[in-house]
Amino acid sequence: MKVAKFGGTSMADAEQIKKVCSIILSDTERTLIVVSAPGKRHANDVKVTDLLIALAGKAASGGAWESELNAVVSRYAAIADGLKLGGGIITEIENDLKGRLAKYAGHEEKLTDAVKAAGEDNTAKVVAGYLKSLGHEVCYVDPKDIGMLLSDDYGNAQVLPESYDNLARLKQIPGIKVFPGFFGYTRAGDVVTFPRGGSDITGSILAAAVGADVYENFTDVDSVFSANPGIVNKPEAITALTYREMRELSYAGFTVLHEETLLPVFKAGIPVNIRNTNNPGATGTMITITRHPDPDRPVVGVAGKKGFCFIDISKYLMNREVGFGRKVLQILEDAGLSYEHTPSGIDNISVILNGSKLTQEIEQKVISRIRKELSVDLVEVHRGFSIIFIVGEGMRNSVGLAARATQAIASADVNIEMINQGASEISMMFGVQDPDMDKSVQAIYSEFFRS
Ligand code: ASP
User: How far is it, in rounded angstroms, from Cα 190 to Cα 143?
Assistant: First the structure.
């Protein structure tokens, strides 16, 4: 059994939904389908989820919401019209939305999640309705009936462990099953959503629950690319990646899959295939637990991300002071900060943090505690710092890679402020100033992919 998830651009209008349905029907193993809400049809368009958030906002603030409701309904009306589904389904969608607004009036969090989830829920009904109209055995699956149970963290839910056994029953339902992504239900029976982009998470949970052969994630690009196409001109496609490589690359700026998405399929050892709805002939990128890297291609991708900061701490004889590092990290923990990396020397340590998390207010508290409690010689915060990651399973035991990378950065006339490599050797990190990031990524890319 294959679990296939289709993203927002695949659902954007009737023509896209027809493409999706022909992809579903072209493979008899593609029987468990997860759908997003309709996304943007063109660059200036608005996603249905954003229209729904605007609708919920209006309703929660007690304003008139009719025009926001109409904006949503007319998106579905155009889709239903293009799929020749008849007007009944539109009345149902309109009533469904009004029902959600009425049921959760006065409960802003619950109202927002229930309205947000209507995008996926109604899209699943439309897709199931269309496949049925073509004469196929198909059903819409209600996440409530099957038991997709989530924690009651509205807008940021986590799957509850019992969901997996509940969802395994999907295997017993014959034909094609269309499941709405992005939401589930609390134990108390209220709608609750994952973070934005969370339909990917739904697909991953379903694939793990039914023990799928593959989790196909259909989007609007042919594959994952070896660098950000906005920085590097026409980067190479990546055909195979391991979970570890994907995790490192998405941490450092690749945005193909939602951060939490891979966890359920990773634990279950299920491969993920990223594919393109607009070019179904392309084989896409396959993400697996292991792979055999090509010795001539030790690096699989180069990523860069701006907006980090670091706290630089120096103290004479720091390396002899038992517990120094723990005390620094404790101060950060007390401030609710998680740290990213801690490159260190004998008498200094740099703690790299996400710049947006270290607000000016938190910075003042943290710095004054470090100064007072640890009697340091120097503590300074530096902002506007980028990290660059070079990633590849083939980097392990490969001689001369660091030399090639640093030489490339030097040739771009960039000063490296920090270097970090863990013992797993599948990634190397370089810290540079924000304005130097793009040219560093371009230089490293040329070294490893064009030379
Ligand atoms: N429709 C939701 C969003 O736009 C979830 C998703 O598409 O995955 O965030």
Answer: 11
